[in-house]
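@channel sequence for tomorrow's demo:
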Amino acid sequence: MAGIKSDALTRLSGADLLKHDGVLVFGPNWDLVQRLRSTVASRVKQSRSDAEIVRLSSADVEAQPGRLIEELQSVSLFGGFKIVLVDASSNGVQRELISASSLGWSGSFLIVSAGDLKKSSAVRKEFEASPRLLAAICYEQTASELSGVTRQLLAAVGIEASAEVCSAVVDAVSGNAALLESEVSKLAAYAGETGSLSLDDVVAACALNRSASLDWVLDNALGGQVAKALAGLRELHSEGAPATSVLVGLTNHLLLLAEMAAASGGGRRAEVVIKQWKPPVFWKRQDAVADQVRRLASVDHSGILEAIFAANALARRQRQVEWPVLERLVLAVSTRLR
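structure tokens (generated this afternoon):
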């Protein structure tokens, strides 16, 4: 069916999702892509308690052509339903997905995650055109959208919150949507039996932290903050974040900055370009992104892009991304923009 926005996908129950054979979750907001992938898997699992979860990496799919459709069409080892998760980070995986879609399957639900696929992408077209499949795009969320997400999360645990309180929660986590869910448990404790929150409760419960989210690492790396970028990268590694996701995020963000730098030519200020950009840049990050655009525009950044492309080519050849390679890449990029 036609593509839907990420917030529409979050409103679907497990039963709603199971009316389809699978979903493609993609877009420039990789943190949101990852969270929605987990949310969809959890909801389908709740509706099908007999489900076995099968995770296939890009390397798994590319090394064994036909493995994907075999997993989708075969019966689970436990005789029940299957939830198959795939990362479509390479052209080879996307070709396998299109092939699988043409054959069809039953007894399985497919969840595909991908980066910022263009409208011309064959796999995006396949999922958007098929009545059996869903496609949800994850843009950077505005402050208003994040406030709405906060209200939903709080309501789910029985807490009523005003628009002012929800906005304060978004500010407290610096617009980092990934932190909203983790803060809800703290807020629930402060709400207690009353089931309501005040602004004072938010200030007391929410840590004004800058955790090592992917956005935080990217902003420091491309803002020339070498030490912070490397420290954040190592924290992501220790938390089990996939190196492929970081490389995809870095690549997509650098290409976006290059487009913005080109658009800011002819005397246009970076701030003006960013405020008018579609899809919009989250307002809390606009100053940081403007600084990154100015830094990129002030240097010959062809070498930076070449290094990024070379790293992606190496990842495709080796079918994986090594953390030491990624660390050297971030160091080189951040040093160049310092």
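heads up for whoever presents: The chain has three domains: 4-137, 143-205, 214-336.
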